[in-house]
């Protein structure tokens, strides 16, 4: 989780720099700060619930582990042109 916070901080900093936003002290009242903190906490809870729900759904679908997609070898030229006229195969050989 700490890594995500660091990554987010870096992306925000880069975006601010890109758009010329300078680090300026905000003038929020204590009430506004409390409201902002509560909004952020609610959002964190919603995200956590969403992630947990997605993980449960993934387990129900038979994928208990997250794995990298398996490599799929595309069909060879001869496999894709099998059963097609010779002219078609000859024409598309130039595109290789």
UniProtKB/TrEMBL annotation:
Composition bias, Polar residues: 62-80
Biased composition (Basic residues): 87-96
Domain of life of the source: Bacteria
Region annotation (Disordered) ranges: 55-96
Protein name, entry field: Spore coat protein
Source organism of this protein record: Alteribacter keqinensis
């Amino acid at each position: 989780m700490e890594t995500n916070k660091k990554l987010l901080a870096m992306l925000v900093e880069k975006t601010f720099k890109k758009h010329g936003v300078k680090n300026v002290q905000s003038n929020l009242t204590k009430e506004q700060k409390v409201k902002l903190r509560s909004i952020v906490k609610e959002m964190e809870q919603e995200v956590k619930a969403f992630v947990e729900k997605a993980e449960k759904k993934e387990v129900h679908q038979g994928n208990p582990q997250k794995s990298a997609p398996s490599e799929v070898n595309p069909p060879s030229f001869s496999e894709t042109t099998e059963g097609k006229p010779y002219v078609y195969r000859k024409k598309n050989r130039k595109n290789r």
